[in-house]
Design a protein that fits this description.
about 150 residues; Double Stranded RNA Binding Domain; 2 domains
Length: about 150
Amino acid sequence: MHQALEQKQPDGINVPSERTIYRDMEEIGISHRPKRKPNGITRADKEARKSDDLIKRNFTSDKPLEKCVTDMTQVKCLDGKLYVSAIFDCFDSAVLGLAMDTNMKATLCEKTLENTYKSHPGIRGCIIHSDRGTQYTSGIVKKSVVI
């Protein structure tokens, strides 16, 4: 809600802090409380060689295809789980490529990289930042076309 108000930029209205909005929404009964604390689905590979953090928490970019971020998420469906992996451009948060599968193996990340390269060949040389999970640090992804 706070982000929506910030984006609207209402004239002459001072947007209160995020916590104030949350408290007001709680009072009138329109807040959402998650049922559980979300846990990440990828696990860090402790054996993998640690690469340098080239982004250093600066997830913005002045031009497209300079810095990108990637991650995967799990979607619960009636007939099982679906895993979605996507690559986002830090310039405008556009989805450059994605892939879906019923498992979260390294081939899902490889397919995401391939799909991104097919639609945006200019991504070669781009910094792609991930959470260093085992899928992203596996040998199959390192040998991928984009890297």
